[in-house]
């Protein structure tokens, strides 16, 4: 999500290629489990990834989160790349109708009222 569409260079071993259309400057084209070709945006694929995490959270805490906070480690990304990442993640959350906010690492201070450890991995 951080790369400009013109800077992306596909590698054969990735198992997918890049394409685009009028609405999406970056689309990933890949072969689905049943052998059919699929095309999806990075934001859509990230939304599917997030949806699986939300299901795991719901299984552990008993309710589906209505919003999430995202913390992006800024090291290695410039301002333009961070904007692309935040825009892409924001689109992913919108596809899921999920509220979201970004935690600013520079100004973040943890003030936990309740402490509780939740394992997302079944023992």
Name the CATH superfamily assignment.
Answer: ATPase, nucleotide binding domain
Please give the CATH architecture: 2-Layer Sandwich
Portion in beta strands: 15-25%
Going by helix content, strand content and strand pairing, the class is alpha+beta
The total strand number stands at 5
CATH class: Alpha Beta
Give the tally of structural domains.
Answer: 1
How much helix is in the residues? 25-40%
Strand order in space, largest sheet: 1-2-3
Major sheet details? 3 strands, antiparallel
Spans of at least 5 consecutive residues with low confidence: none
Annotation field: number of helices: 2
Mean pLDDT: 86
Shape: globular
Q: What is the rounded distance between the termini? A: 33 Å
Radius of gyration: 17 Å
Stated plainly, the CATH topology is called Nucleotidyltransferase, domain 5
Task: Describe, in plain words, how this protein is organized in 3D.
The protein starts with 15 loop residues before the first strand and ends in a 21-residue tail after the last strand. The mean pLDDT is 86. The longest helix has 20 residues, at 42-61. It has 123 residues and is of the alpha+beta class. The chain has helices at residues 42-61, 79-95; strands spanning 16-19, 27-31, 37-40, 67-70, 99-102. Helix content is 30%, strand content 17%. The strands form 2 sheets. It has a 3-stranded antiparallel sheet. It has a two-stranded parallel ribbon with strand order 4-5. The chain has a single domain (5-102), classed as ATPase, nucleotide binding domain (Nucleotidyltransferase, domain 5), CATH 3.30.420.
